[in-house]
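Worked Example 4.2. Read the sequence first, then its structure tokens.
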Amino acid sequence: MKYLPPIAAALLTLFLVVPAELHTAPTMLMLGRFVPGGSWVQAGALALYAAFIATKIMDPKVHARWRPWMWRLFSLVFFGQLALGVLGFERFLLSGRLHPPVPAVILAGPIFRGGGLFMVFLLLGTLVLAGPAWCSHLCYLGSWDDAAARLRRRPGALSRWRHALRAGVLLLVVLAAYGLRVLEVPPVTAGWLAVGFGVVGVGVMVGVSRRLGVMVHCLVFCPIGLVVNTLGKLNPFRLRIDPACTQCGACTAACRYQALEPAHIEAGKPGFTCTLCSECLPRCRGGFIQFRLLGLSPDRARTCFVVLMAGLHASFLGLGMI
């Protein structure tokens, strides 16, 4: 039983990576662009890496320590390849063409272009597997917000207007993308506006998330975060709080997503903005916060989650590029 999770994570990685490699040209796996047959070496290495990660993060305490570094590694690889592409090494780009590396473009891009749903379907596919965990494990920009928020030891509080503001940002992005399309704004101009939106988002991280200790960019500014939180509820993974909880508040102090406020704890489940980051699990001294998945025991439910996160992380590490 001990070896089943790493084996399952390795197989999941191969299941995701191999079809992508077989059905794309040029090769999706970077090593294959430089060394003949290198794609399959990289696929095997990613599978072994997924097995290693699954073994390590089975312990909730280790998961809480490793998740930010795993997340930052993916972001570093993603933006590192983008930087090399910008410098003229086109083999580091997915198609040889640049697209703004801003999560909002996943939604705004197809609205502006009137098509091109690849990233939308990729996001939806991830939500089917991992639900809202996209925002705590797999978003290439979210790790920056996480790093900024951690500069303050304990999270502060956000305004009660944050939900309305978040919905307003989503509506503004949708209307702006459609308006640019109707006005036939050149794609280059629209691209620079998207970059500007991303720069403002980084400013939110540096100026607000860092000061409050809360992931304000992800919770308020990023429209994809609201989409993920909403559609992620279709995924069966859940966190539940046992009625025996003493309401000590230790989990509240650990949550950067404002999903474990006293009202949520009293209700027995995290709030709408929970991303299954799992940082609350090792903080709960009584073990009252547990994973749920259909009719499985909490331990087995969390094992399934760990396998999915390890496999998706390794796959994104190999396939994530602009």
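Now turn to a second chain, presented in exactly the same format:
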Amino acid sequence: MLEKIAVIGAGFIGRSWAMVFARAGYNVALFDAYPEALKNSMVLLEENLTDLKDNDLISSKQAVYDRIKPITSLKAAIDGADWVQENALENLQIKRDLFHQMDRLLPDTTIIASSTSAIACSDITKDMQGASRMLVAHPANPPYLLPIVELSGAPCTAKNTLNQARIFLEKIGMEVITINRETKGFVLNRLQVALLNEAFKLIEDGIVSGADLDKTLKYGLGLRWSMMGPMETIDLNAPGGIRDYLERFGPAFGEIAQEQAALRPWNSARYKKMEEERRSEMQLEELTDRARWRDRRLMALIRHKREADKHYGK
């Protein structure tokens, strides 16, 4: 039975994980190497929890907040922890250094998980004595609102570690998938990159504006995908199910796929154009307020989905 959780790194992802664990009833030690970042995270936590309470997504803001303790020492933060969630900068050496330290300080029974978005577990844990109890638990952003978690181990990660991780994360309300073989970017980011590649081409070729492309997702694909994935979507989009769909649209979609196959570099010219287009839609100083708007809209959607699931079923 897990009792104490340590969250390493108090940035946005670490702060979100702290809320995930604390609202499930666990005591959380939140550590950051920068005291000012740790202090700021506690202020932002209170704001996030206020929004969750206002949307009836937690029963008590104070109860959740009180379970999260800011700790200024790594050793003190992980002392007695049953699960450690690492959220350091996306830098291999920084993560390896942290895992080395924690490997020496923690008993063999403690699971150590990384929130990395793209670094393979085997690169982080290579040659470590306790590599069998280490894995990647990659969340979506922000994890306190988007419950998906991708579990990816190295070849030396014990099967029992992956099983225990899945059981624990599902217990605290997360939706868990297991990556059967290491792949760069895991699943979520690979899907996101594929969509972004095509989106950038459509904008660069003058086929559609960035604003209209966003509408296509917001009012089309995104609405469907908020309820079901692409496999279920196409299964429902033809009278005879998925095989019927593929037989009807396969030839045309195959031609489109051939057009999409040519890669274009993600370079400075592309960055400049994307930046200019986005800043014409929203100024930099508006991003923080818009991000909070996004989170509140996600909360309202989560509340609606919960109510709908009770009425209609998943």
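Notes for the reader: The first helix runs from residue 12 to 23. The chain has two domains: 4-178, 189-227+263-281.
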